[in-house]
Amino acid sequence: MVIERIELVRTQLPLVEPFVTSYGIETNRPVLYVHVIGAEEEGWGECAALSHSLYTSEDVDSCAHAIENLLIPLLSPTTTAQEFITLTSSLQGHYMAKAAVEAALLDYQLRLQGVSFAAFLGATQTRVPSGVAVGLQPNAESLIKTVGRFLKDGYQRVKLKIEPGNDIEPVQIVRSEFGSKLLLQVDTNGSYTLEDAPHLSQLDEFDLLLIEQPLAEDDLMGHAELAKRIHTPICLDESIVSVATAEIALDMGACSVINIKPGRVGGFLEAKKIHDLCLSRSIPVWCGGMFETGLGRAANLALAALPGFTLPSDLSASRRYFETDITTPFELIDGFLEVPQGHGFGRTPLPEVLAGLAPQVTSLTIPM
Ligand code: MG
To answer: N or C: which terminal CB in the chain sees fewer CB atoms within 10 Å?
Structure first.
């Protein structure tokens, strides 16, 4: 599997509506693809990083820099995804940058082997129940309208972004408007402290599936203590950057659910390890979204088709985020998204769509 060239492809795709969370507003999906090219095949990997380093310390510019200057120089023309993990194991951080390179290598080698990513991972489902994340809304009317629209589309679970001062009320409104059977969860993106435990315990009466990342990402002790003080299950997102941190968090009782995002943990191979750990302990997991384009969405769907993903994932139809996706779009069918069965990730950027976005393409040198 000789790699002849690697390109970094950058552009951006406007979101159909701004996405507002406790850490800021996103209006565009910055696109950073790693494109691996060989004589007979090519592979594509999408970087999950956003335009600002608000969700984690990485952003799309820092990832592009790390990929070009730290990661690609470690490759040879025959490096596999598994070898790449070993080569970069002593390089701290750079999770989303590593994940993008690993993804491109995986897509490339699986296409050469004629194997789908779902088959490679050991997926057991051919479709994945789809949930939707709802950003902070300016008022009750907008909240009800937005949630109602997504439920009409068929989404099976709703996740509300909340923040201090805008938390109990939106949950109460959605529960009273849409009933007790709605699968509902909240995400605070680490915007509370342990002192807020009495306040957060007010969420217990709403029978939420979980509260995601209530405290700061480095506050595992706080989460373990909070878990004793509230009944709503705690799910960790930002705190979990590896299978090692997942194991520590579970051992400490800091969470009882984990949101697995491949970009956040350095790639799909690490994500699979976290899945396997959680499955062995009967800890439910689900796949978070970073409003990826169809390329990243395709790969995430294969991951979310593993048996331990027992909660609906934040993997929505393409049109939830984009007017025109860069790949063949994903459609919601009866509340599910189909898991791609083609070779590799089963989706590649459509040349005419990508060209229309006037991407900036940088050729990178692979050491011989
Ligand atoms: Mg989250």
So the answer is: C
Q: Is the pLDDT of residue 134 over 90?
A: yes
Residue 148 to residue 171: CA distance in whole angstroms? 14
Q: Give me the pLDDT at residue 90, please.
A: 92
Q: Which of 218, 265, 267 is nearest to 244 (CA)?
A: 265
Rounded to an integer, what distance in angstroms lies between the CA atom of residue 247 and that of residue 264? Answer: 16
As a whole number of angstroms, the distance between CA 20 and CA 363 comes to 34
Complete DSSP assignment for 270-281: HHHHHHHHHHHT
State the distance from the centre of ligand 1 to the C-alpha of 170, rounded, in angstroms: 17
Closest by CA position to 42, among listed 113, 111, 118, 114: 111
- pLDDT of the residue at 18: 87
pLDDT tens track for 73-98: 999 999 999 999 999 999 999 999 99
Centre a 10 Å sphere on the Cβ of residue 339 and count the other Cβ atoms it contains: 22
Decide if 290 contacts 48 (C-beta within 8 A): yes
Per-residue b or e along 164-179, where b marks 16 or more CB atoms closer than 10 Å to that residue's CB: eebbbebbebbbeeee
Look at residues 86, 74, 104 and name the one whose alpha carbon lies nearest to residue 8. 104
Q: What is the DSSP letter of 232?
A: S
Residues 6+ apart with CB under 8 A from 95: 56, 58, 241, 263, 264, 265, 266, 267
- pTM across the whole model: 0.96
What structural domains and CATH numbers belong to the chain? 3-114+348-364 (3.30.390.10), 119-338 (3.20.20.120)
- Measure 48 CA to ligand 1 centroid, in angstroms: 13
Tell me the residue ranges of DSSP E strands in 232-357.
Answer: 234-236, 257-260, 285-287, 336-338
Largest CA distance in the chain: 63
> How far, in Å, from the CA of 236 to the mean position of ligand 1?
8
State the catalytic residues: 161, 261
DSSP string, 206-274: G--S-EE--S-TT-HHHHHHHHHH-SSPEEESTT--SHHHHHHHHHHTS-SEEEE-TGGGTSHHHHHHH
Contact yes or no for 131/125 (Cβ under 8 A): no
Give the orientation angle of helix 220-229 with respect to helix 243-252, to 10 degrees: 40
Ion ligand 1 contact residues with beta carbon within 5 A: 187, 212, 237
